[in-house]
Amino acid sequence: MKDATPRAIRLEDYAPPQWRVDTVHLDFDLDPERTRVRSRMELTRLVDGSAPLVLNGQDLGLEGLQVDGRDWPEDRRSLEPERLVLHDLPATCVVELETVLEPRANTALEGLYVSGGNFCTQCEAEGFRRITWFPDRPDVLTVYTVRLEADRATCPVLLSNGNPVETGDLPGGRHYAVWHDPFPKPSYLFALVAGDLVCQQDRFTTRSGREVDLRIYVQRHNLDRCDHAMVSLKKAMRWDEETFGREYDLDIYMIVAVDDFNMGAMENKGLNVFNSKYVLARPETATDDDFVAIEGVIAHEYFHNWSGNRVTCRDWFQLSLKEGLTVFRDQEFTADQSLRAVKRIHDVQHLRSLQFPEDAGPMAHPVRPRSYIEINNFYTMTVYEKGAEVVRMIQTLVGREGFRRGLDLYFQRHDGQAVTTEDFVRAMEDATGRDLGPFRLWYEQAGTPRLEVDGHHDAATATYRLTVRQSCPPTPDQPEKRPMHIPLRMALLDPSGRPLPLRLHGDGDGEAPPVERVLDVTEAEQTFVFQGVEAPPVPSLLRGFSAPVKLQFPYTHEDLAFLMAHDGDDFNRWEAGQQLAVKVLLAQVRALQAGEEPRLDPALEAAFARVLEDEALDAALVAEALTLPGEGYLAEQMEVVDVDAIHRARRFTRQALGRALAGRWRARHDALADSRGGDAVAMGRRRLRDLCLAYLCAPGEKEALALARSRYEQAQDMTGTMGALRALMDHPGPERDEALADFEARWRQDPLVLDKWFALQAASGAPGTRERVEALMAHPGFSLRNPNRVRALLGTFAMGNPVHFHAADGEGYRLVTEAILELDALNPQVAARLATSLVRWRRFDAARQERMRAALERIVARPGGSPDVYEVASRALA
Ligand code: TRP
Ligand code: ZN
């Protein structure tokens, strides 16, 4: 068991390891009820004196302990609940020990567990200590040799990290395999998989001629869904060679798909374990978004082989060192496979709708946190997504080529080491000569900075003054903030929409000034004076979202419409439309709160009509431009969140636009009806097609619903099926109910597709959704033991359906709280994620605050709860 009172781990307490593990041999005798693990470690003491050896373990017994072949006396060891301390060891020695595990009973899905009848492991962050006693910290790297033994009939496949060494038969229907990984690695990258699996195989020749055997292991019935993952893997391998000069380093690369998995996927050296959601796809079962997500996650885990495995983290406070960098790398990869601007829009939406709220709430923490109770709670949007933005800003500051040189230096300097974010920044500085001193604050200071910008044109002197003020709201433990180094990419557009040459005071008058600049905002307040500006310009600010900040500029509706039409930066064109929509929707929210009828703003209608008719613009960008800001993003703009008014305003606007532009939606929809192919262009066309259908259906008229119903019937693939279903979901009635029933009957046996069915219903805005979610928890297909199912039903309800989750009667909170408590006993990690839905209780009205706080108090007060859930709930109440 974990300690009774969870204790915080602090960065400032970091101390380097006192022992080195030179090699480890692990021997697994696999059995679902009783697995025996023998470990043999060769150890060297790194410090003078008699430093004891401290090994971590969780829920572990100790069956045997020998040092240099002899039993180690009881009085020279202390067995604590989570530590085994060995005293008076010789400076070099061999420690052998034995543990016994019950993989079948492991519902936490950390350590060794059984999924779909097969054995697998999850060791990041601290799962290895549930397998054997070991210095389970990322700065202890060692060379692993692993022997697996199991029943041949039920476990024909035996896998671990590295390269295969030996296999053979044993008496009693058993067999074994030995694997050796030549690259020293921390324990969190250890993995084993054993079971009745089949594989799709391919090969890849690296740039320098190494032949790599590629294998994707799945259950037999999924073998026809591996093509896309394999193609994605090969693309990622080639891309990393071409873009960053990174080559693969073993003879084999394996991916295993498992149905029960706490997160997306795991980068274990040479043996990635994946949530099957991020491997399995064919057009009949997976949507375009699924295909894109799979490509991205396959690439992400592959890229970790360098950014994470070859160079790893010194301690878990440095998590963003590998995750921020690897997310940045996978974002760039996806951008190169599709439309860069669309990818950027998606990433920024993701950041704003999930990371910004995190950064403004009680769980706010720096990209490099300073303390935690349970590290699993710090696999956050901040560490991943804001961390990627920090890496992106470094690239903006040092330039693309400089960034490449910096990354080369980082990998060369630190190959085989466990390092810190500081080492990363220093490599960037050393390779480019750029001073990133003040920039480092991005790693240390939590909260989303706010930029208030104003512009003033002076006709007499033909100058334009841009004044930038920055501030950052207080966050837990950080009441006062210092100014940050913010790269502000910008342009000035003249009245005809052309970008002006940007001559700043102090520029030499040699070459022609650029039409786009990155301003270094470093002070609390700064003014930039542009020369030679004859007429008042419209500024295009924060182009490409050059920093993760909230920007304010007093744009008029006309300015925004102008930018939507003329901005040469595709991201900012989209952003102008979003800002216009936010203004309009918030005005409607205020109207509703004042008891007035909302009205459709003519500027928004005109802008939508124009975009909808723009045949020159990529369909994917049109679709993004015509998507209204989400309820969560709108909520962020309000002092006190009014979930009902936001929901009603957004629904009203969708319906009004659906009605006002019905002919145009229909025409565009019909023109796109037959959009086939797997490339980004075809996907963009399908996205726009389904968006048109959704607007057509928004008013809920019979004819449109019938169209959606027939689209459901005729759909060629899962993208079309889901597009039709989604358009129907907010409209209770026979069309919706028949389609849902048909879908369930058809896909009952297919867990990943059935997840979509659960999620659709949990996301519905229609009345009675909470009751339906509650009924679905009793559905034979529902289980708290499967994280994907929990996320599909409960995660979607709690995080993706504000109007029902936050229902005034408190029933949404009750439902989710009860689920958290029940889930906590099975899987604390997933329970803690669900609990984050309650943490921002202070954002709501008094009545909701009261109910949410009571829910959190109930969670904290419960005896025997996990430290995971305790940390989330207690931080929320602090
Ligand atoms: N390192 C994984 C990734 O980002 C994340 C991960 C997978 C993870 N499974 C986990 C983190 C379990 C904590 C616990 O690719
Ligand atoms: Zn990762």
Q: Could you walk me through the main structural features you see in this protein, from its secondary elements to its overall organization?
A:
This protein has an 8-stranded mixed sheet, with no helix packed on it. By secondary structure, it is α+β, with helices and mostly antiparallel strands. The relative contact order is 0.06. The chain is built from 26 helices and 32 strands. Helix 1 (227-244) links the parallel strand 18 and strand 19 (252-258). Among the domains are: 1-195, Immunoglobulin-like, CATH 2.60.40.1730; 197-279, Zincin-like (2-Layer Sandwich); 314-443, Neutral Protease, domain 2 (Orthogonal Bundle); 450-554, Aminopeptidase N, middle-beta domain (Immunoglobulin-like, Sandwich). The mean pLDDT is 97. The two termini are 25 Å apart. Helix content is 40%, strand content 21%. The structure holds tryptophan (TRP) and zinc ion. Residues 91-189 form the Aminopeptidase N-like N-terminal domain.
Concise structural overview:
The chain has 878 residues and is α+β, with helices and mostly antiparallel strands. Among the domains are: 1-195, tricorn interacting facor f3 domain (Immunoglobulin-like, Sandwich), CATH 2.60.40; 197-279, Zincin-like; 314-443, Neutral Protease, domain 2 (Orthogonal Bundle); 450-554, Immunoglobulin-like, CATH 2.60.40. It is built from 26 helices and 32 strands.
Which ions, cofactors or small ligands are bound in this entry?
tryptophan, zinc ion
User: How much beta, percentage-wise?
Assistant: 15-25%
**Biggest β-sheet: strands ordered side by side in the sheet:** 6-5-9-3-2-12-15-14
What is the name of the CATH topology of the domain at 1-195?
A: Immunoglobulin-like
Overall CATH class of the domain at 1-195: Mainly Beta
Low-confidence stretches: none
- Tell me the radius of gyration: 28 Å
Overall spatial form: globular
